[in-house]
Automatic annotation (TrEMBL):
It comes from the Eukaryota. It comes from Darwinula stevensoni. This is BolA-like protein. GO terms for cellular component: iron-sulfur cluster assembly complex; mitochondrion. Pfam families: BolA. The lineage of its organism: Eukaryota, Metazoa, Ecdysozoa, Arthropoda, Crustacea. InterPro entries: BolA (IPR002634), BolA-like_sf (IPR036065), BolA/IbaG_stress_morph_reg (IPR050961).
Length: 123
């Protein structure tokens, strides 16, 4: 289990020099669907859906690789694996469809973070 604190977290947009408006323009239909489903199911205090497809060998404008950062009290009393299963269950249609990779970071409001398990770990 990995725990990271906000003080050492690196924000992808900051590293790449992207502004919030640029990231919003990069949001497509799949990203919006992911955002809507997670917001409805988890009622998060913080939700960030980042399309990381541009960092991979895919056609321009693809929506295949995502990173989601979610802070929600719905994760209370759940193990790290249960938290990730919950997110995967909410997004099962997207994962079964065109989403090739999904990186998940979940947290409670107390700042305890759980990173996604490597894809080769059987859940």
């Amino acid at each position: 289990m990995f725990h990271i604190r906000r003080a050492i977290s690196i924000k992808l947009p900051d590293v790449l020099g992207l502004t919030r408006s640029t990231l919003c323009k990069m949001s497509g239909q799949v990203a919006n669907t992911i955002r809507t489903k997670l917001a409805s199911a988890l009622l998060p205090s913080h939700l960030n859906v980042i399309n990381e497809s541009f960092m991979h060998n895919v056609p321009k404008g693809s929506e295949t690789h995502f990173k989601v950062v979610v802070v929600s009290d719905k994760f209370l009393d759940l193990s790290p694996i249960q938290k990730h299963r919950l997110v995967y269950d909410i997004l099962k249609e997207e994962v079964a469809g065109g989403v090739h990779a999904l990186s998940i970071q979940v947290s409670l409001k107390d700042g305890t973070w759980h990173l996604a398990l490597p894809p080769y770990v059987a859940l």
